[in-house]
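Hey,
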Amino acid sequence: MSNQTPNYLQIINENIDAAKAEFELANAKIFVCGFSAGATIAYNYAMSNKVAGVMMAGMLPNFSDLQNKNFPLVVTIGNLDFNFINLFNINIENEKTFPSYACWVFEGKHEWPTEQNILNAISFLFSENTLRMPYSVDYQVFYDDFVKRKEYYLALRSLYFGNSLYKDEKIKKQIDNFVQRKEFVEFMIKFENILIA
C-alpha cells in the first residue's frame, strides 16, 4: 500500500485474517513491521490493535507515545539514514526508560536492513514474548568488530541491544566501563559535531 492509503488499518486487518485462515493460525502471535512510512503505519496499527510486537525499519516512533504502548517495539535504522539524527538527539540514556524497547543501529543508509539485522530485531521480539529466538544474537561479535574499526557509537549501540535482549548485569557493567574510555569520549565529541554541523 502507498503512504497515502486512507483505509490502511482495514487492509492490514484483512491481510492478517486471510493469512490466519490460509495457514490455520487462529491463535498465532501477530508481529507487524514496515519500512520508512510503512514503519509508522505498522506502529500506528499496533497502537489500536492487538499485536505481539512491532519492528520499525528506517523510521522512529513518536517517543512521547512509548510509555503508552502495550507491545514490544524494536527499531532498526542505518547510521547514515536521514532519520538517524532524530534517534541520536533522543539520547541513548533516555531510551533505557522506554518499556519493552530495543534499537539496533547498523551500518547503512535509508534502506531495509540485511537479513542478519532483521534476525537480530526479530530475536528481541521473540524474547519479549518468551518464544524461542530464531538464533542467538552474539552482540559481543558486533561490538568487537565495531571497536576494532573504531566505530565507537555503533559499538555502544551493540552493547545496549545486547542488554535489551539478555538483561544481564555484566553487560551493564561493560557499558559503564566502555563509556568512560578516553577513545570513546573523544570519538563522541567529534561524532556529535559532525551530526550537528
